[in-house]
Fold this protein.
Amino acid sequence: MSGFDSSAFLASCSGRPGVYRMFDADAKLLYVGKAKNLKKRLASYFRKTGQAPKTAALVAKIAQVETTITANETEALLLEQTLIKQWRPPYNILLRDDKSYPYVFLSGGDFPRLSIHRGAKKESGRYFGPYPSAGAIRESLSLLQKAFFVRQCEDSYYRNRTRPCLQYQIKRCKAPCVKLVDPEEYAEDVRHSVMFLEGRSNALAEELSKNMEKAAMALDFERAAEIRDQIGILRRVQDQQSMEGGSGNVDIVAAVVSPGGACVHLISVRGGRVLGSKNFFPQVAIEESVSEVLQAFLEQYYLGSMERDLPSELIVNTVHEDFETLISAIVELRNVELTITHRVRGTRARWQQLALTNAEQALGARLANRQHLAARFQALAEALDLDEPPTRLECFDISHSSGEATVASCVVFGPEGPLKSDYRRYNIEGVTAGDDYAAMHQALSRRFKRAAEGEGKLPDILLVDGGKGQLNMAREVLQELAVPELILLGVAKGVTRKPGLETLYLNDAAHEFTLPGDSPALHLIQQVRDEAHRFAITGHRARRGKARTTSTLEGVPGIGPKRRRELLKHFGGLQELCRASLEEIAKAPGISKKLAEAIYAALHSE
């Protein structure tokens, strides 16, 4: 604990809404927070027990706390976001991406141009967006150029042309620079482009269809073919960027958190059309919950810029108690009504799942990034006081259900990421049900028996998911097989069993230590441990499922693989088959009364 006198401070603290700022001994701002009741909120930081690791680390550094009382919680939220953006405190969840978002800009004049625009909207013309990324804009502009031939060249280039450029030759522009198109015809192309950018693709397609019919009736088949091609492009865009039934201006935001980082994925939908998406990787000092990361992102993203286009609805993948305060702040600051939805159906549910899937994949890719992983391996070497970073980590884990279908997993990581070709699973046989120590002994013996004979690669560090007992078991196996000495690392969950509070054992139970929750070395250990756990569970479930769906029927004479498969398909699974009466089994296709009796007896023999 720090030398801060929390009792004296809390005795004079107000119970009104406001913002609090925490400073260390060097007067450096550590954290900015808001509260509906300052006294209650601040008192929660100074409890003697039950503190989260992030809170404990923060409180240990506090030397001073300052408060600012506000009229209500909404004003507190607005002030909090202003201070976070200005000072970027290390213990706040920070959104690093403050770049202005791009727009599609349509200039003025007789022959306006379409372009990408960032920054202040000083030029006269129309702005469409914002788009999540410049890539999303380039895709839209490319489609517009193919469909409606509106120029996209710089004004200086346009004014100095004396003959058409390549864009005219490949039918991407009508060459207004050398007056090869009438202003009226060009204005019509611009109007159609605007309809597309406003999200009115269906109305545009209907209008073009009528124009195509008129051109065909007038025997202007060349013009009819041009319009047909425009409609075809629009339909392809609708297939790619829209989901059937989607409508409205919606942002879909999904957050995921994993040891070592967090990702927020944003999908922008305007006029029912998906404009694009973007990944954000907020700075998360210590393990945060998904709802906390999401709330911090929404506050900074939607309150951080007055120019940012606001949707009418937000779809999120989790809920937070401060959503109502955020909505009030947006109404007060931007005078825009906004709803935040969590439970959705139909198209919106598909959008929600799409955002969540993208966030998970983006975070996984970031954590697997070679440069990122190399830094973690270096941090692990420093944490274990090694001369050089390890090149091969192996981690073992055990999975079973009350001793049934026990499976051990071995996963392998190098500085380049998971070495999945070296992953192994071991079906554990001949041990007492639920005896994890014996299961670990068998798995390690099978793994290192060949290594002791000089075959295969040895790891630099062997991670064992478990406490002192599993670590001692691993040492016994290595000693029995006389395996050349390697580093043993036991990973035990702390008392609270929460990520960030793991207890580590180096080589033996006497060398017990912990790492800070934000340590890259700990994040690597967690990542490898979690992968071993996932791999073990997958193997266990497959083995258990196979046993449960086949073993009870395999011994029945007359029930081969095909008939067994058809029987399970007919009843919808083994559970329903077990519930069926003898008469119901006999009614299944290809099952005689005698065979039904044998099946029923096998299912109810225990």
Notes: The CA atoms of residues 75 and 329 lie 7 Å apart. The first helix runs from residue 6 to 11. DSSP finds 21 helices and 19 strands in the chain. The longest strand covers residues 404-414.
